[in-house]
Amino acid sequence: MTIASPEPEFAAPDAAARPLWLVPQGDDGPLWPEGVETGFAAASGFAARPGQLCLLPGPDGVGGALFGIGKPATPADRPARERFTLARAAEALPAGAWRIEGAPASYDLIHGALGWLFAQYRFARYKTAEPPKARLVCPESVDRDAALAMAAGEYLARDLINTPAADMGPAELEAAARALADRHGAAVEVISGAALAEGYPMIHAVGRAAGPGRAPRLIDLRFPGAGPAVTLVGKGVCFDTGGLDIKPSSSMGLMKKDMGGAANVLGLAETLARMGRAGGLRVLIPAVENSVGSDSFRPGDVLTSRKGLTVEVNNTDAEGRLVLADALALAAEEAPAVLISMATLTGAARVALGPDLPPFFCDDEAAAEALHGAGRDHADPIWRLPFWEPYEAMIEPAIADLDNAPSGGFAGAITAALFLRRFTEGAGTYAHFDIYGWQPAAAPGRPKGGVGQGMRAILNALPALTDRATGAR
Ligand code: BES
Ligand code: MN
Ligand code: ZN
């Protein structure tokens, strides 16, 4: 599968673009732009509230538009209550090219432009869905190529998540990874069959009950070029029934998105490669379907992981940490400077922070601060939770080294993260992201459906993370 959605695009710079005036709110109403006839807007109640739009008449119809941006934001206000507000204009403006005018210095044009590109995403694989036809002329202060690279990565992640499991099984996820590798000259290795059962027993155990053509596999991408050794590991559970400890239908309905971690690391790799920053990057994806069948792994089974640690399966629905553990163990064997996992790992993370604020875990204070700060500054908020040492006892059952699903479920996101950390020994900085990967209701720049989370936080924190580390490939 190639990228299904059309490429993100700005309007051609020479397009005859109409002006979109950004209008701040003053104490006594809109701070009207100079030289613009605003009587009509004032009379029609335009107050420059954030996201408020007013078309301006012109000789041939619509001559321009005003867009409210509210009171000037201070850095302390970030993250604003609403991200990507300018995406509202992308959705609502008539077709054609638009150029931004009158942006105050404090206005975040980068995320305005990015939100506009994000708003133009449509998942059109199964029905035609017209994207908004208003195109933005990329503002001069915005790095056009970087914005397009970020949008392309986001589009890819959304496409992969949105595609139903019937059309996005382990084989199709592999094909998507191969297509990405082909686009950027990366090397691909895929381990399956006997080699998987032998070398990656937990990936095999989780995926072995899947039907014909949907066998489990470990996808391994390496990007060309020199650079710090960074390995991204993404949970690629293409559908999660829960296995024999089957999920209730209410919980199973969205489980096509259980490869959201894989989608996000592939999206991030796409962005890095387009920016010329993928040298030294490795991407690992354990791709499986957690199915119910006579060959399913069972509650009570004890699995021996790649690393040698034994794991008692107390719930076959805690499958993500099993497949990630073997992939993380492989990653750690070559001691990358930075190791990052992304996974739709626990319901507990959602209970704690909701769908829009993914928790992340990182032991290195400076790296954690860099990640959190990058998320805040790049409209990609994330929130740190602790690898809380005292809870290690919760993942240590009676008859094996580890328990995949501690009873009671207290601190479920933390115990899952602690489980993963056991397999990362040898790696430099390790960070784990427990993402949701889904936009439950449409918001500016984010239609309902698959969504990237944490990609831009990681992208922008990576230089700080790798500066602190030594390894290079
Ligand atoms: N894929 C789920 C977690 C999930 C559920 C993420 C809903 C986002 C939305 C994961 O495999 C899972 O089932 N986790 C269990 C673990 C438990 C059995 C220890 C959970 O969180 O309930
Ligand atoms: Mn599960
Ligand atoms: Zn899962």
Written description of the protein model:
By secondary structure, the protein is α/β, with parallel strands linked by helices. The chain has two domains: 18-142, 3-Layer(aba) Sandwich (Leucine Aminopeptidase, subunit E, domain 1); 150-470, Aminopeptidase. It is 31% helix and 21% strand. The chain is built from 14 helices and 20 strands. It has helices spanning 39-43, 87-92, 109-119, 144-162, 170-184, 193-199, 201-207, 249-252, 260-274, 320-333, 347-353, 365-377, 412-421, 455-467; strands spanning 18-26, 29-30, 53-58, 61-70, 96-101, 134-136, 187-192, 217-222, 230-234, 236-240, 281-290, 302-304, 310-312, 338-343, 359-362, 383-384, 402-403, 429-434, 438-439, 449-450. Strands 7, 8, 9, 10, 11, 14, 15, 16 and 18 form a nine-stranded mixed β-sheet that branches. Strand 5 (96-101), helix 3 and strand 6 (134-136) form a beta-alpha-beta unit. Helix 10 (320-333) packs parallel to helix 13. The mean pLDDT is 95. Residues 237, 240, 258, 319-320 line the site of zinc ion.
Helix fraction by DSSP (H/I, runs of at least 4): 25-40%
Low-confidence stretches: none
* Number of helices in the DSSP assignment: 14
Evaluate the radius of gyration: 23 Å
* CATH homologous superfamily placement of the largest domain: Zn peptidases
- How many domains, in number, for the residues? 2
CATH class group of the largest domain: Alpha Beta
According to CATH, the fold-level topology of the largest domain is: Aminopeptidase
Number of DSSP E strands: 20
Q: What would the principal axes of the Cα set say about the shape?
A: elongated
How many angstroms does the end-to-end distance come to? 29 Å
Structural class by secondary-structure content: alpha/beta
Query: How would you state the average pLDDT, rounded?
Result: 95
Largest sheet: 9 strands, mixed
Ligands, deduplicated? ligand BES, manganese (II) ion, zinc ion
GO biological process, one term: proteolysis
GO molecular function, one term: manganese ion binding
Protein name: Leucyl aminopeptidase
Domain Cytosol aminopeptidase: 315-322
